[in-house]
Structure formats: C-alpha cells, structure tokens
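ARCHIVE CARD
SHELF: 3
SLOT: left
DATA:
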Amino acid sequence: MRKLWQKWSLFHPIFFSLFPVFQYYASNSSEALLKNIISPLIYSLGLMIIVWTILRFLFRDSYRSAFITSILLLWFFSYQHLTGQVESYTLLKYGFILIVVLFVAFKVRNYQKTAGFLTILGGYIFISSLLRIIPIELQRARNTINLESLRSDEVEKELQNASIAGTKPDIYYIVPDRYANNTTLKEFYNFDNSDFTDFLQSKGFYIAEHSTTNYPKTFLSLASSLNLQHITELSSLIGRDVSDNTPVFTMVQNNMLSEFLQKQGYAFVYIGSWWEPTRINRHADVNINLYANSDEFLRKFGQTTALNPILNEIFHKGDILGFSDNRVRENHQYQFEKLKKIAQYKSPKFVFVHMLIPHSPYVLDRSCNPVDDKEDGKDITTYREQLICVNNQFKEVIASILKNSQNPPIIVFQADEGPFKVDEMNRHGEGINWQKTSDEAARVHMRIFNAYHLPGFDKSQLYSSITPVNSFRLILNHYFKTRFETLPDKNYYIPHLNNPYDFYEVTDIVDFK
C-alpha cells in the first residue's frame, strides 16, 4: 500500500497540467465546446512531460523534479490570475516572480513529504473543475435535443417541395458585421452614405431603407435568417436564464438554407471570419479563411499563461496568441481579395460571407491604409473612416461579381446587427443592463443596412422595412417556387449578454415612424 501511495503521490504534475485547461473551459463554456480543449490539453501535457523529463535528468530525483515541475506549471498557468489583467505586467516583473518561486522551491528540504500534499491538492482542484463541467455538458445535450424541435415544419415542407426551372443563379449572402443603417449613419455618425447606395442602385440593387435586424447579436440573427424563421422559442427550449451560446452556434452551422441549396446542386462556399462560430463551416464544400486553422480557444487560453508576455516581447503584440491590428487588417484584405475573384468558382454556388467589418477594431482609414485602433473601438470617427474603406472595397467586389458571373446573380448584402452606441453600451454591449439603456441606443443597434440584387424579381414584393427573417422566404418563393408566408417583421432585444435567450420585443421602439 505504501509503494502504491508513493507512486500516486507523484501524480501532481499531471493534475497541475490538466486543471488549468478544464478550469478555463468551465469558465468560458458559454462560447466553447468540449472538443476545443483537446489541443490545449495536448500542449499542456506535452509541456509538463518535457519539463519533468529535463528536471529528472538534471536532479536524478523523481520527487524533487516533480515538485519543481508543479511549481513551474503553477507559475506558468497563473499569469492572468496573478497580474489581474493579461497585459498588466511586463515580462521583467513576471520573471522576477519566477525567480522568487524557484528560490522557495529549492529551499524545500523534504520533497517526498510535500508530494502527497500536492497530489491531494492537485486532484481536488482537477476534480472540482470536472464537477463544474459535467452539468454544463448534460444541459447542453438536452438543449441539442430540444433544438431539433425548433426546425420549422413549414420550412422543411416548403423546401422539400421546391423546384427551379432553367438556370440556377449563384447566390451570395454577404454579412458585413455592424454595418449601420443610412439613417443611423446620418444622425449619429454625421455621414452621408448616398455615394454607396447610389452605386448599388445603379447596379440594380433594391435598398431596404427602413430595415432592422430581428435579433441583437450575430449568432441569434444568423440563426434566424439562415433558417428562415423566428427563434423566440429558444426562451422556453433552452431557458431565459441560460448563458450558453453554443446551442445556437449549431443552428448557424447546420442551417436549413445551405442544406436545401446543396440538395439543389449548389456548391456551398463559405468565407468565414476569425470569430470561432463563423470561422469555418464543416458542411461547406469550400472554406475560405486565412485563419481557417486558427484555434480561438487555444489562442485565448494561451493569453492567460506566461507564454503571452514572452511572445509579446519577441513579436508584435498580439500577433501570435491574439488578433493584433495587423492580423485583423490582414484578414480583411484577404477576404476582399478572395471575394473579387469568387465569381470564377464553378456555378451554381451559394456563397456565405461573414466579415467582421466595419465592426471594430478600426484598423483601416478611408483609403484602406493601416491605422491603429487607439481608442479600442470607441471612436465614432474611426468607424466612419473604416466604413468609407469598406464601401470602396465592396464596390469593387460587387462590380467584379456582376461582371464575371455567367448569369445574373442573387446578392443579399445585409448586416446582422448595427453598431453599439458606445457612450451607453461600450464596444460590444458587454457588462451592460440593456434594459437601462435609451431607446435611442436600441435604434442605433437594431437598424441595419440591407440591400438586394434580385434579377428578374418583381421589386413590388419588396418593402423598405423588410427584416432578415423574410429575406430568403421571398427569394425562394420567386426562384424556387416555394410558398412561404411573410412573417411579422418583429424585433427582439435581450436584457444582458448573459441572458441571450431572454427575448423581449422592441419593434415599436426601433421601427421607423
């Protein structure tokens, strides 16, 4: 029994390498999936094995090498917790903490006695993190089952009976994140957007001047528009007090629109952002993303460790573990260049594009030259400057698509949400009770830019206040002979980002009167 305990007492480096990953996941499970922990677990265990192996070779003492390994792991994974903020300490200051920690570690006289205590401590915090995760995963499994009942029978029936005569047009669904409505741009940003709207109208676009988003966050808005239905039932299916966003991420991934079009012979071309839920789509035939292989969970976990200040000293701040202004700018430019050539892909194709622009950070001036977002997304002037760049780039994109398409394409250019009124709601509405903000803030955020290029479509069927939930209902009715009814163009708000399914209606507030 004693020998068995001696072996178990050396398990503490394993526990201290596993615990940080599980703890970080438990704290961020509202936007992550269990599979996201695989890569950081591999790296964490690999780091532990390398360090422990080297120390055993140097000291020829299993207990001493295990003790120092655990101390080093605690130091390495405690960076954010010790400093309070990821960027608050310099590498020099944090290195001094390491020297103190190692000094204390080498002063320990009986490593064998401390091994048992460390193993019990490590086992306790590891099991504690597991106990936090288990109910989360059980609830998530129930939510996944519940979501199946949300798939609209009406949508399924109409899509099954759909048909198309003649040539299948390419379909582009371009979502420029937080592109404000023209009224918002004029009233709050002192910007006249007529140059861009005139360009679109000259190319045959219909501008829905009074359009609003149905839901106030990207994942909710896209789950609704891509599935051609309202999603207010999520309040009862998932729960008003649940903060977990991931069930609805699956609605964006497994959406009914792309599934239907693929069955109709369309190639699904997916141009995603660096934001994890729209980074790639595993159902797409083609994924186009400069950072398709970038793991957001791994990057953000790495930012909590001592690796973050080390890499920031060597490279440009945020270039490796974060998304620095350089990387954000690089991804925007990559997306625009790919879009200018996208019409050359084999037809018919459904191209979904989510671009986190004019969304902050504001890293491009009106001429698309690099600038630093010194105000961290809170300067309305830099939003306006970046928007001018966006407009000019999209002019080239749309002109290229129209010129190089074999047949006139369908193009939906539609924001998922508007910008936030930063003096009331910060950059992203974080940490704010939305119910205590003004009606004006709701109008700024919920009013969106929305434009349609629909060749051969009777534009009298369109209307200025159309919302995203009805976009593809009307489009499929015309091009695929479906018979969808037009749903109420209602708008729903949430009280807090921690309550994404606690919907309440704000149609009367955000509607154009």
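SLOT: right
DATA:
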Amino acid sequence: MRPADLAHYRLPPAWRWLKAFVWRVEHDFERTKVSGKIQDDIRVRVASVMALFAVAFFLLALGAARLALFSGPADANAGQMALPGARGDLVDRNGQMLAVDLPHFGIYVDPREIWDTSETQRVLAVALPELDRARLGRALQGKRREFLFGGMTPEQKMRIQDLGLPGISFEEEERRVYPLGATAAHLIGYSGKGGAGLAGAELALDQTVRNGAAHHDAVPLAVDLRIQAALEDEVQKAAREFQAKAAVGLVTNIHTGEVLGMVSYPDYDPNLAGQTSLDLLRNRAAAQVYEMGSIFKVFTVAMGLDTGAATLSTTFDATAPITINGQTIHDYHPQNRVMTLSEIFLHSSNIGSSRLALSMGPNTMQDYFRRFGLFSAAPIELAETTRPLLPRQWTPNIVASTSFGHSISVTPLAIAAGMGAVLNGGTFIPLTIRKLEPGAVPTGRRVISQATARSVLDVMRLNVTNGTGTQAEFAAPGYRIGGKTGSADKVIAGKYDHSKLVSTFAAVFPTDGPMEADRYFVLILLDEPKGNKASNGFATGGWTAAPTAGRVIERIAPYLGIKRVVAPLPLALSGTLTPERLNGGEL
C-alpha cells in the first residue's frame, strides 16, 4: 500500500468521507470537461458547495440547540474568559452572597471633542457631586483624553449618557462589591483595585477566589450568616450597653474547627475600606492579644486532671492570700477556706488555681500550654493571626499568674482553638474559615485524655448552673450551657490598672450527650466595659460577657439543630462535690 493510502486510512472516518466526496466532485468535473459539458460542471460545483454549506449550518444549529436545551450554567459560561483581576463570588455555608464582582464603569473626558467647556464642567459637577472639581477642571483644560472617575454603577452611567455631552465616554471595569456592608467584614476582608486580596478571607484564600472566577465557581466559607447576624447584634448591643472600648465574638464547631461566626467591634464597611482607619480595620479576634483572665482556669484544671496532679475532689488551702516573691495573690470573692478543685473552679479562686499550678511546676505548664496552641498564633488561614506575648522566664510568680490568665496575652482565636481541644474529647484541631464537606472531621492531635475532657465539660456545666456563669443560664435556659467567666485587669503603661478590665465568657453547648455529639463553642470578650444598673455596677465577665453569650446561644441554637430541654440533667462528677450539695446552699 502506498504511503498516501496509509495516510488516508489514518484520518478519522468523517474526514475520509469528506476527502472522498471532494475527490468524486473533481473527478466528475474532469469527465465533464473532457466531454465538453461545461454547464454541467458549473452546476455540479454549485450544488456541491451548497451541500457543504447546508451540512455546516445544520451542525451549527444542532450544537446551538443542544447548548440551549441541555446545558447548565457552567457550560454556558465555559467559553467566557475572566477579566484580569476578576475574583469569584464568596458565599456563606448556605450559599448566601458575601462578595461579588459587578460591572462598573469609569468615565473619561476628551477636551478635543468639547466645544463648551464651562457648560460641560457645570453639568458634570451637578450630575456627579462626588467628582473632584479641581481634577475635572484640569482635565478639561488638557489636550488628551483623561480618566475622571471610576466605580460608576450602570444607573449612574445611564444618567450621564442621557445628558448627551460630547467628549464624554465610558469604559467597563470590574469592581468588588460587598452587598452586606459591615456584616462579617473582618472575616470576609476586602480586595484592592487590581483584584488582589488584602485582608480576611479575600487575602487568605486569594488564589482559590481567583480560580473561582476562572471556572465560574463560588467559594463557600464556613460562616453561617444567620449565626453571624445574631452574634453581631448581641455583641454590639453589649458593647454599647456597657460602653466597651472594643469587643469580640466567636462561634466555632469544636469537632471541625469551622468558624461559624466572627465579630470584631467596632467594624467597618469593606466597600469603603480605603477610607477606613487602621484601628477599625484591625481584626481583634485574630490580630489583638489580651490577658484573658480566669477562663485560663479551664486549661489549668484540664492539665491538673490529665497529669494526675489532682482530681475534682482534691483540696487546696484558700483560707488566705498567698505571697510569692513579693507578689500577693488574692481572690475576687474570697471564701477563706479549704476548697476542692471543683469548688475552686466554681468560685474562680486565683489562690486555689495558683496552688495547683505550683504543684505541677513550670515545665508541665509550658508543655500543656504548648499542646493547647497557646504558644503560637492561632492555626487558621487568616494572615492576620498573631503570635502571643509570652513570659521570658517561668518563675513561680509567672506559673501562678498564668494559671488564672495573667502574664500571658493571646488572641481570642487562640483561645477558641485551645478550648476546642479541651471540649471535643481532647483533640487539637486547627480552626478554618473554609466550609468543610458534610461529615468531614479533620485530623488532629491528641492533647488530653477523653476522660479529662469529660470531667472539664461537666464542671463547666456545673459552673453555669451553680457558679460564676449563672447569668448565661438565665439568658438561655434549657440549652445545657457550660462555661467559665474571666475578668482580667488591663496593663496600662506597664502596670495593672484595676479600673480597666477585659471581661470574657467562654461557653460550650450542649454539654450533655457523648463526647462525639455536636457541640459548639462561644466566646464573648468586652474590652474595658463599665458597670451599670442592670449589672449592679459590676463590669466583670459574669455580669457582662456571660449574659451576652447566653443571648447568642438562645438565638443560634435552633439554626444548629440544638433543642431546648427544660428538665434538669444529672451530672456524673467524680469527687465529693455534687449538684445536691450545691443546691443545699453549701456554696
């Protein structure tokens, strides 16, 4: 077989048929030419060309009909190229829009096409009051086409076009729009004019969001807008009620690490990020460190139980303040007696917590704090996540102070990650702003035993029913909340100022059920709250942050599928402390 024949049979069947058809037409033409029938030749050629065009148009029509009738949105957009700097949509875990690229327009002026400069200047100044008049004047006096103003909506463009001004033209440009304004602003973040993510999820997931534009895919975040809205509302109400300088709110899933809600107050509008002060842009949940106060006793009690240094019934002498190298440690509400570890937790005894920490020593404290992630920036995609401020030397004073949340400053996100490890059964799981697939459980590392985690969960529940966290229970009865209050004096100019507090409440719900049951963490932090009539003049965590957390839980529990249980639930605590003894008035 000749090489030409081999090449012919290597062609696809459709091409072989087309080649044979053309060859037959040419062969017929040669025959007609030999026979002198030129008119027959022309008719053959015309008919052949018409047949080819008919087949081509039929195939095009068939493809168009298939695309219109059977393709989805992804197929329809497949041929569209993303503009330079384009970004995919950001949505919440339920598909609600958080950020989107929308077409906007830039307005240009060419003075060479304008015959009445003063009239054009007057009309544009009225139609676009936000336009810089000095810039407009310079552009009209120039000799080339100049850009005037960007980010115009289609409605604004139409309004200017209807004026019929010569020398005025428009160019389309993409603009990032945040339709919910300040809602979840610090979590979502914002991007620049060139399309680069600059903060929040926009920066953390920058490449993923860019790829979303190229493939016409939305990028889902873990946040739930319903939870976010309730959290924002309650945190902002509390901040205003107690005249707080700033505030933070967090809601996380302790088994997956997903951040379902994040609030940093005061907030800002990401649509106006370029006009916002750096203080408002700061994400206080990720980028601000605080001495958190007595919520650190959750970690101290957990390590005491996990090491075997104590049980919930182990007693510690809290009859009087203790002095360590000139530093005196006292209790806010002293009981002046020997107390069990459970009672120390319920009464938030600094003296008892210090004695437990001193019995374990600095090496154990550092080991467990490191396990809980308190020695590093919170593990999360956000670029803003900040490292803690740690003691340089772990002297006995430092060991005692850190046991109740002084002398160590961490971010609220670091607290959320560490608490998750205590409350989910003992596994440290990184936080994430990404939505995980249903049923997905990230791989973590074990930091405490499940038995320890169960004991801490139970004593946190008892603290809400009979200890310092009762205001949370009053705000959300029936949701089996556990929690720990915290009130830390702020460091001002290198010294503790007893008139300024960071008040916190770390909550978990529901506390009943097996350790693997659905469970959520809520953190409320108020920076420098002031007591009022409703709080009996107190600005501490039990009176400010705890009821706020309870109101948040009351509102978000239905969205999470957590049902209210009115009947009291029994607690199985090891040791001598029981709900019956507490209800009997012994505390």
